Amino acid sequence: MKIRTIAAAAALLVLAPAGVGYAAPPEPGPITLAEGLVGPLHLSVGPGKAVTVSEEFASRLTKVAGGATTPVYSSQDSDVAGTAYQGSTLYFLESQGAGPEDPRPLVGSLKAIDGKGQVTTVTDQLGAYEESANPDQNIHYGLSVSDAGNPANSDCLAQLEAAHFPPSYTGAQSEPDSHPYALAVVGNTAYVADAGMNAVLTVNLKSGVIGTLAVLPARPAEITAAFAEANNIPACGGLTYGFEGVPTDVEMGPDGWLYVSSLPGGPEDESLGARGAVFRINPATGQTQVHVEGILSPTGIALDGSGNLYIASLFGEGVLTVPAGSHTASPFLPAVMAADVEVSGSTLYATTLVFVNGSLISTRL
User: Fold this and answer.
1) What is the pLDDT of residues 146-189, one digit of tens each?
2) What domains are there in the chain, each with its CATH number?
3) Which residues fall within 8 angstroms of residue 207, CB to CB, at 6 or more apart?
4) How many Å apart are CA 80 and CA 180, to the nearest integer?
5) What is the pTM of this model?
């Protein structure tokens, strides 16, 4: 019911929508810094404005600086995902076993590479944490309990089962699933957006102790007639289905709140509308609130020092912006398959064309 790996959604769209009007970014951007990257789903900016890109489809980290690309880390067995710098230390996530396509045991790690290139493991227990804690075990997905228990909807329930939509379930009834996907590091805490757990975790960088900060709520959507027909569930038209909220990025804002982008679960095309969102989460209490919604496939976010938010819309219009104090997104930078975005000083960086000819670009803000 969720996008297990972002790559699985690539077939949904290969070109950005035509005829979209954009508010062009300031001159002189964008500038292409690197091409030919293999699935650059994440990026982070380090010392000297060197950019580290997670080439997730190649299971490696690559540094881009001065027009050159240099391998930083690679894995033969695991998915290498989100990164975050703290000083000269680069933290990153590594995992395997996410979703039914990968039958291996769930293993998830937070690792660090220091300024001398030494790799250490902060924790390798992220997968085990899902199996023991199951953060979303009390979240209800699918049809409401009343709709699922209504005899008048029996045909709908049968059609949902046949179409591989669980009719009504909780996180406790799902198979264990962990895909540590994105990362922010603040002080002695790493915040991990886990796209399998549907949760944002905390990891103590000294002890490796893991905790749950917040679980994303289910994302309800009315089953439209067009969606019902396309998915062979005509008896379900008009009912509401709660899809899983899937966190894809996490950033600390200048206001002291965490910002988390979320895929809406289910289809990532427009058959149910643009349902992605960005949440704000209080890092002290876990209080979660919707900041902006109506975004198509938000997979990366960044904030500048003034609190302006930038969103990479993978299958949408490129990079969007939400001014500080606003809750409405508008186009900022046209791009095809924009997967991630970061801001460093007055420069915005983004990865684009991630399924075709992965590129890293930059533009002035």
Assistant:
1) 999 999 999 999 999 999 999 999 999 999 999 999 999 999 99
2) 6-364 (2.120.10.30)
3) none
4) 9
5) 0.92
